[in-house]
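User: Sequence recovery, please. Input:
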């Protein structure tokens, strides 16, 4: 590797002098200058931020940065023409002085329509202090709705429409119907009427609910309605009192029936108990009778057996000789004295005595 020889001393001194002159012409930046530049940058940023925040917060036409709040979408007009670009919530940029911006609410909102006069079918003038309409604009139909009806689309399809529908309803019904009979139906009728036309002409507008307050009527008529309501209340109280009395009577009847049924069941149980006792006694008597009959039959059989045995014994015992002996003993034991001419013949007639013994023996055998 080749190396260049060092320069001569004179040339070296000349180069050092040139470097000193160049350093004097371009001095190094100091720390104070750096801090000043940084402060200038920070102030500039703050001015820009303040300007931009003031611009989009006031929705000025001069602003470049603007904010779309949550629950809204951003709609833009350029030269009076509605742009198709719809932005979501957040920060966005637009051309100042050329593009106009409006936030459009797409969440549920409540429009209050106040002081709505109308005349009933009978010619009585009444008014509604406030009617609340809960509605919502569908995000998919924001462009079409703004294109056809503008930012104040709800004035056409809610505020003006409520006035029209209320007057139509009042003119076709009497004060009695509007104030009392059909008042509970006004909410649903207004909702149906509004939604029907919105579905046909402004499909992006959804009617969620309608709340109608009680209308104001002339004081004299109002007092008459109050008197009617008081009388109706009294009638309802009387009807309810009658129902309570009927319920109490029905309750007493049920209690009496329950008590009678309980007594009937108790009597039935007692009767069944007595019947069971009688049946037990009857069964006991039947058993005792059977035992008595069995004992009587046994006794009769025993007596019969004794008589039969005695008869059999007498058969062998009652011989003519024995009977003649007993007859003689009986006559001998007789202390009576008979007088007459035939007494000796009767006592000592052997043939007569023999015949008597023969007849007695035959009779005894027939009985056995």
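Assistant: Recovered sequence (368 residues):
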């Amino acid at each position: 590797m080749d190396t260049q020889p060092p320069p001569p001393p004179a040339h070296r001194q000349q180069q050092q002098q040139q470097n000193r002159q160049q350093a004097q012409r371009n001095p190094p930046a100091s720390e104070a200058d750096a801090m000043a530049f940084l402060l200038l940058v920070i102030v500039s940023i703050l001015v820009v931020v303040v300007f931009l925040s003031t611009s989009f917060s006031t929705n000025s036409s001069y602003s470049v940065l603007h904010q779309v709040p949550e629950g809204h979408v951003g709609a833009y007009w350029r030269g009076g023409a509605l742009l198709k670009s719809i932005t979501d919530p957040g920060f966005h940029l637009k051309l100042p002085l050329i593009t106009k911006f409006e936030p459009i609410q797409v969440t549920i909102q409540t429009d209050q329509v106040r002081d709505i006069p109308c005349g009933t079918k009978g010619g009585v003038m009444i008014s509604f202090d406030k009617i609340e309409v809960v509605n919502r604009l569908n995000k998919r139909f924001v462009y079409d709705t703004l294109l056809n009806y503008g930012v104040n689309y709800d004035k056409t399809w809610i505020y003006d429409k409520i006035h029209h529908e209320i007057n139509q309803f009042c003119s076709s019904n009497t004060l009695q119907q509007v104030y009392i009979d059909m008042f509970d139906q006004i909410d649903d009728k207004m909702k149906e009427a509004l939604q029907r036309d919105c579905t046909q002409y402004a499909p992006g507008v959804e009617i969620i609910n309608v709340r109608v307050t009680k209308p104001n009527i002339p004081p004299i008529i109002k007092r008459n309605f109050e008197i009617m309501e008081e009388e109706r209340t009294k009638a309802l109280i009387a009807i309810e009192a009658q129902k309570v009395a009927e319920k109490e009577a029905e309750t007493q009847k049920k209690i009496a029936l329950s008590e009678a049924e309980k007594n009937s069941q108790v009597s039935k149980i007692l009767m069944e108990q007595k019947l069971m006792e009688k049946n037990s006694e009857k069964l006991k008597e039947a058993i005792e009778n059977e035992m008595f009959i069995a004992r009587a039959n046994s006794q009769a059989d025993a007596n019969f057996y004794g008589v039969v045995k005695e008869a059999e014994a007498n058969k062998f015992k009652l011989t003519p000789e024995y009977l003649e002996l007993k007859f003689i003993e009986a006559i001998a034991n007789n202390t009576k004295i008979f007088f007459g001419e035939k007494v000796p013949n009767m006592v000592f007639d052997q043939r007569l005595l023999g015949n008597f013994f023969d007849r007695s023996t035959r009779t005894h055998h027939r009985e056995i």
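The chain has ten helices and eight strands.
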